Amino acid sequence: MAVSSVSDREFSRQVLQHDAPVLVAFRASWCLPSQQLVPLVDELAARYEDRIKVVTVDVDSDPGGNKICRQYKVTRLPVMMLFRDGNVADFIGGASSPDRVMDMIDRQLRPVLQVDEFNFDAEVLKAQVPVLVHVDAAWCAESQQIVPVVEATAEKFRGRAKVVRLEFGPETARLCAQYGFRRVPTLALFNRGRIEDQIFGPMEGGTKTDKVRTSCVGLSTTDNVAQMLEAFVP
C-alpha cells in the first residue's frame, strides 16, 4: 500500500475517521532523522497492508507553525504516532528501530488491547462503543485462567465493542484506585465513560458490586461473559 501525505484539511477524514488504526509519520525534508525513517515507513506500509493505514504529515518549517503538530503537541521531529478510533493510541519520538515501531503496532492489533495511564482515557472513557476492561496481574493464576474467555469475547464483539487489558501493579496504582479496582481478576464494563457492571475475583463465585445492572457471578464461558456486553451492544 502506498504511503500518502495528508494535509490539515484531509487529516480528519484520512486519519481520525478511518476504521483501521493509522500510523502517522511526522517528518520534514530538512530533518535528517526524518529522512532516515523513509525506508522504514515504506516497509511498515507493505508489512501491515490491509491491517493498518500509513500516512505522513510533511512539515515545511518549524513544527510550531504546523496546525496538526500544534494540535498533537509535536515539537520535535520525527514522530511516529499511532491513531485508533480517532484518538492517539501510542507514539514514539525521535529516531527509532524497526522492532520498536513494530512492537507498538502489534500491541494495537492484538484482540485485547493493553491500556495504561497514558491511553486509558482515549481507549476506554472516550470510546464510542462499550468497553470490557480485564484487570489482571501476571502473578495471579485466576487472571491467566480467564484470558482465553476474554480473548474469545474480543473476537465475538469485534467492531461492536472493545475489550482491553489493564495490568494491576505500581504503574497503574492511581488508575486502579480511581475506579476501585482492588482485586484481580476484575472484569469491568464501561459505557459512555462510566462503569455499568463488574465481576470481582475468580470467575467461579466472585463477589459482586452493589451497583450493577445484571448478575454476572460465576461466569466461565464466552456466552456468559457476553451477557455483560449484550445489554449495551446493538
UniProtKB/TrEMBL annotation:
It holds the Pfam family Thioredoxin. One of its GO terms (cellular component) is cytoplasm. The keyword Nucleotide-binding does not apply. This is Thioredoxin. It comes from the Bacteria. Residues 1-110 form the Thioredoxin domain. Keywords: Redox-active center. GO terms for molecular function: protein-disulfide reductase activity. SUPFAM superfamilies: Thioredoxin-like (SSF52833). PROSITE patterns: THIOREDOXIN_2. PANTHER family: GEO12009P1. Belongs to the thioredoxin family. InterPro entries: Thioredoxin-like_sf, Thioredoxin_domain.
